Amino acid sequence: MKLELRGITKTFGSFVANDAIDLVVEPGEIHAILGENGAGKSTLMNVLYGLYEPDGGEIVIDGEPVAFSGPGDAMAAGIGMVHQHFMLVPVFTVAENIVLGQERVRGAGLLDLEAARRLVRETAESLGFSIDPDARIEDLSVGEQQRVEIVKALSRQAEVLILDEPTAVLTPQETDELIQIMGRLKASGTSIIFITHKLREVRAIADAITIIRLGKVVGSADPTATETELASLMVGRSVNLGVDKAPATPGEPALTVQNLVVHDANGVEVVKDVSLEVARGEIVALAGVQGNGQTELTEAILGTGPTSAGRIELDGRDISRLGVRERLDAGMGFVPEDRTTSGIVADFSITENLVLDLVGEAPYSSFGALNVRYLRENAEDRVKEFDVRTTSIERPVGTLSGGNQQKVVLAREMSRPLSLLVASQPTRGLDVGSIEFVHKRIVAERDNGAGVLIVSTELDEVLALADRIAVMCNGRLVGVVDGGEDRDVLGLMMAGVPAEEARKEAARHHTVLGEADLEADPESSVEPVPQPITDDQVEENR
Amino acid sequence: MTAVVTETEDTAVVKPRSVTRPVVGFGLIAVVAVVLILTVPPGDARVQLTRGPEALQIPLMTLPATLAVGVPAAIAAVLAVVALVQVLRTRRTVPMWLTVAAGGFLLLAFLVHLVSGKSSVLPLTDLLASTLFLATPLMFGALCGVVCERVGIVNIAIEGQLLGGAFAGAVVASLAGGNPYVGLVAAPIAGVGVGALLAWFSIRYQVNQVITGVVLNVLVLGLTTFFFKGLLTELDGWNDRSRLPALPIPLLSDIPVLGPVLFRQNLLVYLLYAIAITLHVYLFRSRWGLRVRAVGEHPKAADTVGIDVNRTRWRNTLLGSAIAGLGGAFFTIGQGLAFGIDITAGSGFIALAALILGRWTPSGAIVAALFFGFAAALSQSLRSFGVTLDSNIPLMIPYIVTLFAVAGFGGKVRPPAAEGIPYVK
After folding, report:
1. Tell me, what's the ipTM?
2. I need a labelling partner for A53 at 20 to 30 A (CA). Which of A19, A167, A422, B258 fits?
3. Model-level pTM?
4. Class level of CATH domain A3-235
């Protein structure tokens, strides 16, 4: 099936999300759509899948123009989509999810579950893996859920499969398996539209690349193009993919975590006996797939989450029993994982957001009253220093772009001398320019003598910033390795394999992406170069 | 490949949930059962098992108290221990029938214990009959709740729908010259009217569903009271008593003990049986049920496979409201009463509690409603079998149980995930 998009335009109010986009996907082709966060990739796919109605342009299948009034029509036309946030009902079984909307019934409207199970087994087998049709979705790992999504699309006779940021939630080894499945699909004639912002993946697997920026197609590229070329096209200017930083000069320990245990609201142990040290003047990155206890660990360090056992020290002082305020006063800075819910107050002005945790003391306030003039001067200074792009310091922070919001958060947290900076997903959802800036500031904070703990699910970011890397899996600290570790080793560690074993395993078998690395730079196996940073991670469109 | 295997195993480790609360719950049942056995007073227990003119008359049973209390209490204790073992071993919720059976036998032991060694008689059949009688509107209301909430619409307006049904049933039956069957057609229509308002505000305008429901309850109470005072008491023939006749089912109604209780009822109660069984089967095993539950759990997922979320929600809200309206008729034509102000007296809210206690399943809602009805029946008849206990105390028990159930004793309670959240594309 040949799919063509001609002049697709989609606007939201005055905002043009897609501006006359043309795209041709040949049968049996893996077509990557590359673009930054907010470039309009997801909007385009939602148009193609019938979730949005385009304001202009047409979708043409095998030469025939079609119109979709809903996803049902798109599916009937042979288009399947695996959404970034899976569209699976967590309490249903695999079989129930697969047949939802296309149920076979045995008279009187009762479900024919046996046929559903058979459909699951047969479709999965044709792709070279197996799934238990009676397993509940909520009991499956993220990688397995993704395979269920693929089976779901194929069981509906999809000839074009859209994969929206499919690797954002996977370990490198799971990504590798996904790539194999994509290869099998391609061999059987299914076309794949692969949406991503990860350059290395694109180069490794795509047959054709279309690059989108600010809602427009800005060009197409060959998979042989270098990452720098792709990044420049994607961002619209030449970018420096690495992070310049001098070797670390670790000093006294800033943060010491000893045997920390955290339970969640359901009583499940989510942080299991974690011990970790961050010295002043070094960046420790906490790597791991999302949801393996990193969030709970950082909350415990800040004091917003509960701890069941263990000890946390800041500059050698036990802070385990202190409240959040006292911990901040003791010299901790904190950049939360989700800035829109816990980093800023969207309706407050930039001025106010810059002093949220500082207003209690001089010179920001005196005798309980805000020192308005000082706050304004402070805001002017910070906005300049941190390059926050805004028309006025009185603008509500919520009206700024994600990158500028994050700069406001960083400016606030770095307003005072820090012993320790904890930053969770500091560049999630940011554009390349902002990422460069944020990384520079984090390195600067380290060079000022603060200890820095970065939590990131992006291996590229981890490799670019970290002096040491701690890997978490399932609440446990799998190991701590040096900053330049091989990404295949890190990937295996993220799946729970101890460092030594991971090195042996990685030496035996390289993932597709790992091999692409080696080919691109034969030296990397000896001493890895700084990894490119182009990740704006998960688009926040939940 | 190694990596993937490890990953799966790790996911399996995350799964077990805290089991302290179910353990406390079943432990409590076992302990109470043992206490009952140990404190049996000497003498006999008398249990009455006959009621009407059924074919097989069972004489008044007089049993040694130790046996009459001991056997059900022992069964309850054994079931509780079995459940305990299962919870600790599998770390999952035990099947509902086990909980219900353990609780039921414990209750039986408790009742027999009350009359043991005394001259009074335990009127078991009468208790069962009034349990069903008092639980009937609750069951209608709770099933309405299941139909609405499974699709993601919180229906606080069950009370208003019951009241509307009671009003329409009585008035239309009166105007039709005292034909209760005509009232039976009008009642669900009144319920649908209230439900349409609920759906319109909460689906079309995304108004908070709890607030909409509360407002609708006040509206229906105000309207029915207004018409009652302005019309029904002024005009003749608008609010007469008419009653759905009892239709005993041959053979079935002759079964000892349960026959007359279950099968000597009017059409409305038989409709309830039919609705309950149909929902039980269709909610979990049919195409309709699968789609309904998908819409209530993950509407966006349903939308992406071509299911019209808001249309499904509209349909179910109206269907549920019709069930509640029908149940409202039980207050008037179901029992041969004329309409009176606030005749439903908060049954809709108790039905909501039954829905939650029944974990949003039709069978659970039925059992929970019966339990509430039983408590009410018990409080009415306590004195008659010689127990000096304030009648309000048994009335309180179901609510205490509901609170504990909602807090997660006896397993995790999880409402439909998308409940109360409007679906906007």
Report:
1. 0.84
2. A167
3. 0.81
4. alpha beta
